[in-house]
Amino acid sequence: MENAVQITCDYRERPSGIPELLREKGCVVDTVRLFAGDYLVNQLLLVERKTAVDFTQSLVSHRLFNQCALLAKSRFRPVMILEGNPFQLPGKLSTEAIQGAIISVCTAWHIPVIRTDGPAHTVAMLYIIGKQQLASRPYSARLGRKPRRPIRQKAQFLQGLPDVGPVLAERLLEHFGCLSRVLLADQAALQDVPGLGAKKAIGIKRFLEDGIG
């Protein structure tokens, strides 16, 4: 099935019914544990699928930008599918907060956000993406793709830390010289970085030192 869309799904996506719907459309679907994203399309594009509820919850819990960091570190092209309308959900999040998060994903993390109405629409979108990739693969192979600059990759990694945006990530790298020194720095050393006060330094150290769970 050389011309079939190949999709690797994270096993946690089974309850959504999307993997089975993709098979019904003729995709070759494999279910494994993905360490980043939910769907890997044709071994080229890594898709993080978020329902409207999950998007808002992950924003409140600060998981959203940690997940963006994992996507950005991947060797695959990242995309986020936002399923449903987060602006219509009851809750404490303002429209401005949700808009700001979507803009940040697109501009600070360079991850396109595609809106869909529900699982069936998501399936159609994944299928179209896969077909377009297959059609453009010969051209892409000839054209080639420049690797990301290492400094940008490292800065994106640091943006997974609490309250660290693009500017502060670059300052951390400039100040310490390499990622390992940033991660091993104590609170006092972190506070020497312009724009990084005691509160942010404490938050970063707590994030790095807390256990899983």
Automatic annotation (TrEMBL):
GO BP: any one term: nucleotide-excision repair involved in interstrand cross-link repair
Domain ERCC4: 6-86
Transmembrane intervals: none
Lineage, top ranks: Bacteria, Pseudomonadati, Bacteroidota, Cytophagia, Cytophagales
Protein name: ERCC4 domain protein
UniProt-listed InterPro entries: ERCC4_domain (IPR006166), Hlx-hairpin-Hlx_DNA-bd_motif (IPR003583), Restrct_endonuc-II-like (IPR011335), RuvA_2-like (IPR010994)
Residues in Helix-hairpin-helix DNA-binding motif class domain copies: 156-175, 188-207
Gene3D superfamilies from the UniProt entry: 3.40.50.10130, 5' to 3' exonuclease, C-terminal subdomain
PANTHER family, sorted: DNA REPAIR ENDONUCLEASE XPF
Keyword field: DNA damage, DNA repair, DNA-binding, Endonuclease, Hydrolase, Nuclease
GO MF, one annotated term: single-stranded DNA endodeoxyribonuclease activity
